[in-house]
Amino acid sequence: MLKKDIINYIVDNMPYLMKQDASRAVQIIITSLVEGLKNGQRVEIRGFGSLSVRERRAKSVPNPKTGEMMHIPARKSIHFTMSKSLKEPLIKG
Predict the structure, then answer these.
(1) Which are the contacts of 77, defined by CB distance < 8 A and separation ≥ 6?
(2) Chain centroid offset of residue 23 CA
(3) Which of 19, 3, 21, 23 is nearest to 11 (CA)?
(4) What's the distance, CA 29 to chain centroid?
(5) Do the beta carbons of residue 48 and residue 38 sit within 8 Å?
(6) Could you tell me the pTM of the whole model?
(7) b/e burial code for range 47-84 (CB count within 10 A of at least 16 → b)
(8) Over its length of 93 residues, how does the chain's per-residue pLDDT go in tens digits?
(9) Which sign does the torsion angle of CA 66, 72, 78, 84 carry?
(10) Distances in whole angstroms, Cα of residue 40 to Cα of each of 25, 67, 68
(11) Burial of 92 (0-12, 13-18, 19+ CB in 10 A)
């Protein structure tokens, strides 16, 4: 599902809402999620899941082709944990 599909879904279920307003609302939600994660906050959406930033430590691993050791620097990644109410229908489905 793409961002435009989400916007169309909102407009289809709320016919009094203009498409540009729905688009703006979706963009505001995405921006607030990104800002929260950038500030190191955990973002929780009840019934959906939670997003958090995790630090991955630096490591050295062998190059699969040459066998030479490569250094992979430390970095941040986003971790998603789905809520129980999202997990149950996915497992049963």
Answers:
(1) 53, 54, 56
(2) 18
(3) 19
(4) 12
(5) no
(6) 0.78
(7) eebebbbeeeeeeeeeeeeeeeeeeeeeeeeeeeeeee
(8) 999 999 999 999 999 999 999 999 999 999 999 999 999 999 999 999 999 999 999 999 999 999 999 999 999 999 999 999 999 988 886
(9) positive
(10) 23, 37, 35
(11) exposed
DSSP designation for 42: -
Q: Work out whether the CA dihedral 32, 41, 81, 45 comes out positive or negative.
A: negative
Q: Which amino acid is at 69?
A: M
Crossing angle for the helix pair 19-38 and 3-13, to the nearest 10 degrees: 130
